[in-house]
């Protein structure tokens, strides 16, 4: 039978179909570039800038998960990184490629679902995620942490920004069980420091804090409704 489950991946795919936004959702989301979405502006995350400024991470090879229109990928490429940037949305990648061309940087943009990528073990110095993780369903967290651990070199870094619990932008305060009772991620799940430390307990926590609010004059993106975290393998 077509809907018979024979393995773990088929189970995950079935659960995905009930909870995750379809690929078409994200393609349409990025089609209108004039929408008043804060992260549509071509500005890097303030926490990412701080990691580089402080020397916490130094140029190497980076994988960005859910790169959107490419603002962080472009910043990293400008600062000497070899960048692989993946997103499920065709329209976001088209926009990102245009921006990269205008910026004169070379980035390897990848159109794929992060859980379907082929990644060589220990191939990245940094894995960066700005806004992808809070759209990951609870049953996919193990797949996500396995992906991070596989991608990173020993001594490599994982950094992310994600919704704070109960934030104004999103960050649903619901239990994992309630996600499945309601068949919804409620626009994106929220996290606090304790949860992030537990989820990524295989890694060493370097810094976990709220993002700092930024305005355009500072040439960085920052909203205190988001958590910023840096971990080391």
Notes on the protein architecture:
The protein has 233 residues and is an alpha/beta fold. The chain has a single domain, classed as Rossmann fold (3-Layer(aba) Sandwich). The protein has 8 helices and 7 strands; from the N terminus they run H-H-H-E-H-E-H-E-E-H-E-H-H-E-E. Strands 3-2-1-4-5-7-6 form a 7-stranded mixed beta sheet, with helices on both faces. The longest helix has 14 residues.
Characteristics:
methyltransferase activity; 32% helix; Rossmann fold; 8 helices; alpha/beta; 233 residues
Mean pLDDT: 92
Characterize the main sheet.
7 strands, mixed
Widest sheet, order of strands: 3-2-1-4-5-7-6
Oligomer: single chain
Number of strands: 7
Q: In the CATH hierarchy, what is the superfamily?
A: Vaccinia Virus protein VP39
Return the CATH architecture.
3-Layer(aba) Sandwich
Q: Which radius of gyration do the C-alpha atoms yield?
A: 17 Å
Q: Which shape, going by the Cα principal axes?
A: globular
């Amino acid at each position: 039978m077509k809907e018979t489950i024979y393995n773990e991946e088929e189970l995950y795919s079935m659960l995905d179909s009930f909870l995750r936004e379809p690929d078409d959702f994200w393609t349409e989301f990025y089609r209108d570039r004039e929408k008043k979405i804060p992260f549509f502006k071509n500005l890097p995350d303030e926490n990412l800038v701080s990691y580089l400024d402080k020397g916490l991470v130094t140029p190497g090879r980076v994988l960005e998960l859910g790169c959107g229109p490419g603002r962080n990928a472009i910043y990293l490429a400008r600062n000497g990184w070899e960048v692989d940037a993946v997103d499920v949305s065709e329209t976001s990648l088209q926009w990102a490629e245009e921006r990269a061309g205008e910026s004169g940087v070379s980035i390897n943009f990848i159109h794929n679902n992060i859980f379907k990528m082929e990644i060589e073990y220990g191939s990245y110095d940094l894995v960066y995620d700005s806004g992808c993780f809070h759209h990951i369903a609870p049953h996919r967290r193990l797949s996500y942490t396995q992906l991070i651990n596989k991608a990173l070199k020993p001594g490599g870094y994982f950094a992310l920004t994600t919704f704070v619990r109960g934030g104004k932008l999103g960050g649903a305060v619901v239990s994992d069980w309630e996600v499945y009772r309601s068949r919804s991620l409620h626009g994106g799940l929220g996290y606090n420091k304790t949860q992030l430390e537990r989820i990524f307990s295989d890694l060493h926590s370097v810094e976990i804090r709220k993002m700092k609010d930024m305005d355009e004059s500072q040439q960085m993106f920052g909203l205190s409704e988001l958590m910023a975290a840096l971990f080391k393998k």
